[in-house]
Amino acid sequence: MNKKVVLLFAIASSAFMSAQSIEGTITDKSHQPAIDTEILLTKENSKFSAITDEKGKFKIPLKEDGNYILQIIKDGVTTNTENITIKGSLLKNVEIKEEKAPAEQKIEGVTMTAKKKLFERKVDRLVFNVENSVASQGIDAVEALAKTPMVRATDDAISIAGKSNVAIMVNDRLLNLSGQEMINYLKTLRSDDIAKIEVITTPPAKYEAEGKSGLINIVLKKNTSLGWNGSLQTSGSYYWNRPAVSTRSGASFNYQGKKLSITTNLSLGDNFWEQKSYNYLTGKGNTDYWNTDSRSSNNYRYKGGNVKGEYKINDKNLIGVNYNYSYSNPIEQAKNYTQRQTDNIQQNFYSDSDNRNIRKVHNATAFYDVKLDTLGSKLSLSANVMLNNANAKNFYNTVTDVTSSSFVNPISQYKIYSGQADLEKNFAKIKTEAGLKYTSIKNNSYFNFFDIENGQNIRNTVRSNDFFYNEQNYAAYASTNFKINEKWDAKAGLRYEYTNLEGISVNDNITTNIKYGKFFPTAYLSYKANDNNTFSVNYSRRISRPYFGNLNPFKYIISEFEYSTGNPYLLPSFSDNLEFGYVLKNNFNITAYYNYNKDDSDRIQVVEGNQKYSIVKNFYNEDQAGINISYNYNKLKWLESNIFVNGFYAKSKSYDPQAVAAAAGYGANFNFDNNFFLNKEKTVTIMLGLWSNIPNRSGNTYFNGNFSAYSGVKLNLMQKNLMINLYVNDLLNTNREKGTEYYPNYDVEYYGKGITRNVYLSVTYKFGNNNVKGATKQVKFEESSRAGGGS
Questions:
Q1: Which residue ranges does the record assign to the Outer membrane protein beta-barrel domain (predicted)?
Q2: How confident is the model at residue 339 (pLDDT cuts 50, 70, 90)?
Q3: Taking 60 as the threshold, does the pLDDT of residue 324 lie above it?
Q4: How far is CA 566 from CA 179, 325, 471, 551, in A?
């Protein structure tokens, strides 16, 4: 067929299919064009929307004639609502009303919500409404998290103030990812698709009691229409005076049908990292020392993909699957120069390492949801599996008056299976939750050590070892959430977890059997005095189980005289958390907190004869009390600023004679982000910000202060389908790690400085229907994060 005929046929078909439409102009009370105003049409379960241009004009193609509900939404506030009938094309000009619609009203089964506050204090969480923050649009999810109160997010890690090892959820379902894999996935999410971010510092009984850090829940916007969309992303970082760059590319596709939803993501990258560090050990009351200067580099190469699918059997039944795959093969290299003196005997030596790693991770989940009534009650069944295979080829050299060379081949195989059932039963004023969960964890690790002699690998049976780890977890929970009256809300829950674990170190002839069961209560109370003042108080008890790598007694060689090792006797730590929260108006939040952590663990360094090693041990309890304050300033049309301050007092007590607790004292961290809008449409933005930590203490470590600044420009072009971010990280090149560890007979001062100053450029292009979000449901799989840690 002639190409011109095909093109004319396609145009004619498109015009015929879009014969129904509504267009017009939106103006304010002064008869001026109302730009960036949303027009929403609702017909049964279908929604269609558009945003006015710089002349206040809009046009919405429709699939069929009929009766629609028309809403005009300006700055998140529903100003106009009316019923209209469309037959063919309709010209409709609307003048925005001055009065605001009620906070919530129902019209013919359709719920309309007025503008949400930027911050909201719920009974068990703090909510940041991303869709109401102009500065948070046109960026990825990691950057949006960086603008969230109480959260600090970088391309390396995400944490909550005063806490660590935070877990991330999407639509109330935990991501089955950890470490770099999680960061890569979050970078595929656009902030324009995020409705809100919930910071849950004391998670309810419904969630795993694992982790002292709490949870972050990313809630995506709901689908407003059928169809598909996609996006392409690419980014890169250039480092000052370095020949290498870091790159990342990704693509995503979303499809939303009447019954089937599909979301896919693909990403690959090549990240480069380099660090200069030292570790200086100085004896107390003697002349002993052990000083090491190091230079290391890491080329982290990865690729991965994600597929999520949901099928709506009917209005009450939903099934879905989720599969993640990631592959990485980083190259890690290090050079160490050591000077040491023991009993007045001096020795200098050099060591290096060249490690080639391969890691393959498979995550698969499946779920089935059943709606039980019109009040939102439902039953959820889910199953999860994670397979993690890691294989490394590591070469080490130690040079004294002779050269000792070795080859190490560590192999780790994790298998994690879990199944759970969650029941939500709602009544008029009471919401109840209950559930059961079973988890099986198996980790088979093989540490193959070879001495290299005359170019031959000779197995060292003394240093080689096999380690087998098995763990079963059983959990049950129940909770209730009830509205006392219009001002008071309460929630309470109780979770019980029982753990049975066994660790077998074959060569060391060590078998560890541990069994324990614990209750984990949670309680919440909130009081909403009026629309501008909300108060809350909550309590929770949590547990932090050891990473699998920290339980493995393998000796990971650094040189002939240095190694790190795991501890098969490592126990979980527990924490009690109490918080008081207050939100003023829509942009000022205060949270006061107290944490008591029992049996905390950390790395300690030990010198025995001519050997030095590091091991993770339970050795201290810690009290921490603090207050964090966040404020969003958006009074000026050309400026949006976010300020966050966290101040705390920490006191640790060591009960292990090998470590000395750091002196009690104060600490604080500070974030300040500014966005300057250079045009009325706010599509050209200058960014300027900084973060800072003052000296603080935890366990046996004193952490020196640190700060970093950034600046850049953000562009939203082609009706916000093309997004470009260009900025400079660590402008003054000040970001580094420095501190001191305390021991009975010596102190250790450490320092690390990476290539933190870089120029970062990211480009994202979106195409298709931007209202389509695809499959969004996640399934809880908290245990997967424990496979990401090590000694």
A1: 371-765
A2: very high
A3: yes
A4: 20, 28, 17, 5
Handedness of CA 39, 40, 41, 46 (dihedral sign): positive
Cα gap 703→434, rounded to integer Å: 42
Q: How far apart are CA 475 and CA 496, in angstroms?
A: 6
User: Who wins on pLDDT, 311 or 168?
Assistant: 311
| Beta bridge mates, 517 | 498
What burial class does residue 645 get, using C-beta atoms within 10 Å of its C-beta: 0-12 exposed, 13-18 middle, 19+ buried?
Answer: middle
* Residue 465: other Cβ atoms inside 10 A: 21
**The pLDDT value given to residue 785:** 52
Query: Taking the model in full, what pTM does it have?
Result: 0.76
Q: Are 25 and 37 in contact (CB under 8 A)?
A: no
Contact in structure between 381 and 367 (CB atoms under 8 Å): yes
Which has the higher per-residue pLDDT, 768 or 687? Answer: 687
**What integer best gives the mean pLDDT of the chain?**
85
Q: Among residues 769, 709, 766, 680, which one has the least CA distance to residue 139?
A: 766
With residue 618 as reference, give the H or E element that holds it.
Answer: strand 611-633
Residues in the chain, how many?
791
Q: Which helix (H) or strand (E) is 221 found in, with range?
A: none
Beta-bridge partner residues of 245 = 238
pLDDT band (50, 70, 90) for residue 10: very low
> In degrees to the nearest 10, what's the CA dihedral of 121, 125, 131, 135?
90
Instruction: Report how many helices (DSSP H) and strands (DSSP E) the chain contains, helices first.
Output: 4, 48
Enclosing H/E stretch for 284: none
Q: What angle do CA 198, 316, 378 make, to 5 degrees?
A: 50
**Residue 642: both structure tokens together:** 């976010």
The C-alpha atoms of residue 587 and residue 610 are separated, in whole angstroms, by 58
First-to-last CA distance in the chain?
66
| pLDDT of res. 176 | 56
Q: Backbone phi, then psi, for 350, in 5-degree steps?
A: -120, 140
